[in-house]
Amino acid sequence: MTTTSNPVPGAKGAYNGFGADWTPTKLTDTEAKRATGWVEAKIDKRFLLTGRDRKDDVRDIMWQLEKDGEIKVHRVADHNEPVIAKTLYGWDKKIPTNNLWHHKSCGQCGNIPGYPSSVLWIQNQLGIQYLDETDQTSCTAWNYHGSGIGNVVSLAAVFLRNFHQAYVSAKAHGLPEGTYYPLVHCGTSFGNYKEIRGFLLHSAELRDEVKKILAKLGRLVDGKLLIPEEVVHYSEWLHVMRQRIADRQTIDVSNIRATVHPACHVYKMVPEDVIYDDTVLDGNRVAVTTGLLQTLGTQVIDYSTWYDCCGFGFRHIIGEREFTRSFAIDRKIKVAVEEARSDVMIGHDTGCITTLDKNQWIGKAVDKVYALPVMADCQFAALTMGAHPYKLAQLHWHASPFEGLLEKMGIDWEKAKAEFVSYLDEVKAGRIETLYDPKRAITSGPGYVKPPKALQGA
Amino acid sequence: MTAHAKLPNPPISDPVSDLPVVPYEKLEEIFEDIRKHPVYDHEIHGCLNCGICTATCPSAQYYDYSPREIVQLLWTENLEGIYDAMQEKIWACAQCYTCAARCPFENSPGGLVMIMREVAIKHELPSVKEVLRPFSRVLLKVVSTGNQLAPNMITKEAFPDWGPNVAKVDAPLMLLRKAIPMPTMHTLDTAWEVNLKTSVELYTIWEATGVLKQLESVDENLFDVVSDVMEEKRDEWEEWLEDNEDEDDD
Predict the structure, then answer these.
(1) Is B41 within 8 Å of chain A by CB?
(2) Which range marks the domain in which residue B47 is found?
């Protein structure tokens, strides 16, 4: 390509940067490492704190807009039994712990089904009320980040449509609106929804556009947009429930060396809304998952590339897998095995678990032979509480070898697998075990059964 | 800084390429679309070329891609450079937002890349169709069902590099799906069973927000297929409403 700028020949100085004047630095590998190594070595909470003075809490705008009569806020109410957690700047975040609406993840449900089933199973064990229903779409943000198809307005409309459904869903079972509070399973949905909520609260124009669409769908409340007080990820729920989970722990995991892969869209998007806890890694890193593992007694092992992404790339895992698998192996799996001598890598997001789990086998082609079990925090926690590794944690969908880990945890996986294979015969005969009454999953349209009039409520 | 402004009407072209010259007005039009994007001002605030974004960028380790370059091109309004980056470079970004979390200026190079991708689609830049071709199966799924991934998309044939142990229990896929203890997931074509009303509402969102238009510009055949699916589901929903109305009357 030709360029149009015209640098002065022989000019030197401070402005030889990128753009048309850019020239390669021609650093050797060692020099390049020295130049950038400090950036990798100094990543912790302090770095993120630099933006504190410039950052406003969007919830202040939210309350003002509600006061002005422009929006309605879906509150984390008393019946949601909130627990307060502290975020990056020390702000309070209300985490609902009961009466939850499961906002499922398309990648988890399609590919790692033991991920959501473990969350629901743990909630059954703890006596938590919830709804898992069919009236929801994915956030569609995986597609957006991968392809560029979509836009802020479509993402905002999808977000508020799903959250409105969470708000009204209980009516289908004769309970009041607002009974259930949405619990978001996917890390990308969580990051995307928080970002979009911020855009909505900052832009009257965006609110107007989205309001017209939601009005057409009948998805306004009292003629107003419904905005959630908090956008909550399931890992945050696990975090505030970690002691109650540990109280029901039946398997000792103090001999397990675990590495944690924190998900980019969980803590790098809208970082001011991420839980940090002074009792977890001195409050220097995102607290979810690590806090749970420590409470369960696991040895959480640090490793130098903890901050790196997994290589998922949204588009790359589908169309450019050379990048995905190279990054996953070289920057995460290899380091977790060789540097941290990890028994298992634990994550809290859809794409990361998929990427890190599925992209190990191909390493054999280039003599990078690693076999590191990869699973979600909720699956690991469910196992420690005695969940069946196949029927509940559904580990057979994982490509990485988890059998050795189960042996180290004292779980007889061969026996469990035989039980599952024989359970498949029961399933074939229609005797299927479920975590809740299947009738509850349909709240409108074909298949919906209205509750008796006495239970229909207002 | 507007280096390009010094030259009244410079065409952009590659001397060794047969591709047609891109008129300067087109470059301006593209940049205007980027600059007037509703979140552009939220994503860029300045740049001192510190390079922290590139130092921690996963894509920068594997591609000729630098988030710093993206920010600089936009900040200096380098129209030719922006156009050039929109051909391939913007598709290298892994969308992890590490750059955004680290930038002392609170820029979001990843967010800027998304704006540039949207504009690349709008202007039907030559690279878009090629880059998104492997994505068409996913696009069909997400636009027609609201689920990006379905169990029957994960096959050994589609993902040979995942190895032979993608499922560790050898049984028919539907049987394994029914052995998941969540009834919403006893499905093959979607990750969970999607309520008919939900799909119909989603189509209204796609239409109202220009997403279908985007799809049509990227892949006309795919757009036709999606349109058929939408029509079918809408008819089904209308029929159900009519039947249900009858029941209510009873």
Answers:
(1) no
(2) 22-123
Domain co-membership, B114 together with B182: no
Neighbouring C-alpha atoms within 13 Å toward the C-beta of B131: 23
- Provide the percentage of residues in chain A whose pLDDT is more than 70: 90
B66 closest CA partner among B57, B76, B75: B57
What average pLDDT does chain B have?
90
Last residue of a domain, one of B123, B146, B169: B123
Question: For residue B157, what pLDDT is reported?
Answer: 83
Question: Do residues A186 and B178 make contact, with C-beta atoms less than 8 angstroms apart?
Answer: no
Pairing of strands A92-95, A83-86: antiparallel
CB contact under 8 A, B56 and A438: no
Q: Does B13 map to a domain? A: no
Residues 6+ apart with CB under 8 A from A53: none
The CATH class given to the A55-235 domain equals mainly alpha
Cβ contact B163–A361 (<8 Å): yes
Residue A9 has pLDDT above 70, yes or no: no
Mean pLDDT is lowest, of A207-216, A344-353, B241-250, for B241-250
A–B CB contacts, 8 A cutoff, strictly below = 353
pLDDT at A115 over 60: yes
Among residues 75-104 of chain B, which lie with CB inside 8 Å of chain A?
Answer: 76, 78, 80-81, 84, 91, 94-98, 100-102, 104
Both B138 and B223 in one domain: the answer is: yes
Q: How far is CA A145 from CA A150, A178, B145, in A?
A: 9, 31, 18
| Within a domain: B101 | yes
CB atoms within 10 A of CB B65: 22
pLDDT value at position A1?
Answer: 39
Among B95, B125, B138, pick the best mutation site for testing chain A contact (most A Cβ within 10 A): B95
The domain spans of chain A are 55-235, 251-426
Of B54, B88, B123, the residue at which a domain comes to its end is: B123
Q: Look up the CATH number of the domain holding residue B119.
A: 1.10.1060.10
Note the pLDDT tens digit of each residue in A81-103: 999 999 999 999 999 999 999 99
The matching CATH number, chosen from 1.10.3630.10, 3.10.20.30, 3.40.50.11810, 3.30.2290.10, for A251-426 is 3.40.50.11810
B9 to chain A, any CB pair closer than 8 A? The answer is no
Specify the pTM: 0.92
Does the distance separating the beta carbons of A445 and B80 come in below 8 Å?
no
Quote the number of domains for chain B: 2
Residue with tokens 């589908």: A318
Detail the DSSP E strand segments found in A365-440. Answer: 374-376
Note whether A396 contacts B: Cβ–Cβ < 8 A.
Answer: yes
Provide the pLDDT confidence category of residue A56 given band limits of 50, 70 and 90.
confident
In a domain, residue B9? The reply is: no
Q: Tell whether B92 and B114 lie within a shared domain.
A: yes
Residue B10 domain-assigned? no
Q: Give me the pLDDT at residue B63, please.
A: 93
Give the minimum alpha-carbon distance from B166 to chain A in angstroms, rounded to a whole number: 5
